[in-house]
Specification:
Blueprint (H helix, E strand, L loop, with lengths): L1 H5 L1 E8 L3 E6 L4 E5 L2 E4 L2 H7 L4 E2 L1 H5 L4 E4 L2 E2 L2 E2 L4 H16 L8 E8 L5 H14 L2 E6 H9 L3 E8 L4 E7 L8 E4 L3 H15 L7 H11 L11 E6 L2 E6 L1 H9 L2 H12 L7 H4 L3 E4 L8 H8 L8 E3 L6 H12 L10 E4 L1
Length: about 350
């Protein structure tokens, strides 16, 4: 029995629209951009010396690659066998980052948006079943809460690229009415920022990928010194400095009203005597939690609820994967069906 457990490798996987992170029960961890590139023609195959590339390598060689981002709004895209293949390659690559041994029984828990449909979950499980022996999908904000041991009187706000997921933790597996998925998240900000910079500076050569990098470097909300964001951009191929602080603030602040509205609604799902504790225990996770000033803006927006505390997780990229791994190792696989959707043996 002990030998059998030694051959079981538990995995916690946060399969995100922008980044995929993984952690294993043997201490391995890894992060990869959620993109797969395929050479456009035979010359690209020669340059790459293989038929596809994953993550940063695909982005670095995008000039001769067709890029596929297989996850959209936090779930698998439903169109095209190529996207399904890309998702499969991405998951295989992520698992390879933690170096499983030959003969390992792979048991993995993967995160999905809080209100992902049965169809979305089924698509992901079907692909996971091809590369793992046992798989379960659970709500991403629930994974974060479990990893932080914030299982009661807490609200998780997980801001990813495709979705912003909110979850009220009341000491039980969250019900549908205790979870919210919003489509205004990191990718939404990227698109708005690209459009705002192009409108303010029509001569600038701007792409969504470039806007994403600028957001990750300068992202902020609210007034303050961070409003000055001078960066070198290209105009007609020539470098020139631009202050894009105003555009960055505008784009980042667009997600705040919906988050506040749904936080207010989730407070009401707690018993009245628990609501004061819940608003003192709001947790920001996901890449979007790195936006400077966001915790303070949310705290200010909820001040009518009394004393409010908003915390940021220490490692936003890995909080979901860490929670999934903790759940996988602490909950015997025989009980996984009580928590989420499962496939495999």
């Amino acid at each position: 029995m002990i030998q059998e457990m030694d051959k079981t490798l538990f995995l916690g996987i946060d399969l995100g629209t922008s980044r995929t992170t993984i952690m294993s029960s043997r201490g391995g961890k890894g992060l990869v951009r959620s993109v797969v590139g395929y050479p456009k023609d035979i010359l690209g195959v020669k340059l790459l010396n293989r038929t596809f590339a994953v993550g940063e390598e695909a982005l670095a060689k995008k000039s001769y690659m067709d890029l596929h981002f297989p996850l959209e709004d936090g779930v698998l895209k439903e169109t095209g066998e190529q996207n399904t293949q890309a998702a499969r390659e991405l998951l295989k690559y992520a698992i390879g980052l933690v170096s499983p041994a030959s003969g390992d029984r792979l048991c993995g828990i993967l995160g999905v948006p809080a209100r992902a449909s049965v169809t979305n979950k089924g698509q992901l499980l079907k692909i996971a079943d091809e590369v793992m022996d046992l798989s379960m999908v659970v709500s991403e904000p629930f994974m974060v809460a479990y990893g932080l041991n914030r299982l009661t009187n807490a609200i998780i706000v997980d801001i990813g690229a495709g979705t912003t997921d909110l979850c009220a933790m009341k000491g039980t597996i969250p019900l549908p009415e205790e979870q919210v998925t919003l489509l205004k998240a990191g990718s939404y900000i990227d698109e708005l920022l690209a459009a705002a910079i192009s409108e303010a500076h029509p001569e600038v050569q701007m792409t969504t990928l470039l806007a994403k990098k600028l957001k990750e470097r300068f992202g902020h909300v609210g007034p303050g010194p961070q409003e000055v964001a001078v960066v070198e951009l290209r105009s007609g191929g020539k470098p020139r400095n631009y202050d894009i602080g105003r555009e960055v603030r505008f784009a980042c602040e667009t997600i705040v009203p919906d988050i506040l509205e749904n936080l207010e609604q989730l407070v009401s799902v707690f018993d009245p005597e628990d609501q004061a504790d819940a608003v003192k225990n709001i947790i920001l996770a996901g890449g979007g939690s790195s936006i400077r000033g966001l915790d303070q803006m949310l705290k200010e927006g909820l001040k009518s609820f009394g004393e409010v505390h908003v915390f940021k997780v220490d490692e936003p990229d890995y909080a979901g994967a860490a929670g999934a791994l903790k759940l996988a190792t602490e909950l015997p696989p025989d009980y996984w069906t009580q928590v989420g959707d499962v496939i495999g043996e």
